Amino acid sequence: AFSSHGDLAPDLLRPIAAYFERCEFPAGHVLWRQGDAPDGLYIVEAGVLRASYRFSEGARSVEESMVPGTVAGELSALSLLPRNASVVVERPATLWKLSTENLERLERENPDMGRAFLRLVLKGVFAVILTFWPVLMARVCVAAKIDYDILLSALASRQ
């Protein structure tokens, strides 16, 4: 999951492994539903997860596949905000779970390692944002144009 971040030595990450739990799930298992409280973050070792994001009632959901090496659920786990997507195991999966309790324990017992792990996860989030930024902005611009057109139409009807 973090192989692209060459500035981190494997020895730094090895002690963090003690805070993770290996989990196996069959296809069809629901890991969490949008709006659920976070229980932790997961690193996909094997299998495929499918995330479905629903941004507003009536809008089509956005689907994302998470393959080995992906970190799943990190935004909710780190912010302690409700899950922003529903996630289902698409193909039998082996995951490494860092529970919210173990994340707090890591931060308490080894703050330097906790900060290093947090920076590592945030680098991955930032990389994903940069990858999908053009698509996200295109959707935002389309929505903004629709809102702008509605506003112009409403203003024109007032004359």
Topology:
Elements (H helix, E strand, L loop, with lengths): L9 H4 L7 E5 L4 E3 L7 E14 L8 E5 L4 E2 L1 H6 L6 E14 H10 L1 H47 L2
Antiparallel strand pairs: 1-6, 2-6, 3-4, 3-5, 3-6
Helix pairs in contact: 3-4
Radius of gyration: 19 Å
- Overall tally of domains: 1
Q: How helical, in percent, are the residues? A: 40-55%
- Discrete helix count: 4
How much strand? 25-35%
What would you call the shape?
A: globular
Order of helical and strand elements:
HEEEEEHEHH
Our measurement of the CA-to-CA distance between the termini, rounded to an integer number of angstroms, reads 58 Å
Protein structure class? alpha+beta
Biggest β-sheet description:
6 strands, antiparallel
Q: What CATH architecture label applies?
A: Sandwich
Keywords:
globular; about 40% helix; disordered N terminus; about 160 residues; membrane; alpha+beta; 4 helices; Jelly Rolls; 6 strands; six-stranded antiparallel beta sheet
Textual characterization of the structure:
42% of the residues lie in helices and 27% in strands. It is built from four helices and six strands, in the order H-E-E-E-E-E-H-E-H-H. Strands 1, 2, 3, 4, 5 and 6 form a six-stranded antiparallel sheet that branches. Helix 3 crosses helix 4 (111-157). The longest helix has 47 residues, at 111-157.
Provide a compact summary of the structure.
The chain crosses the membrane at residues 116-136. This protein is an alpha+beta fold and 159 residues long.
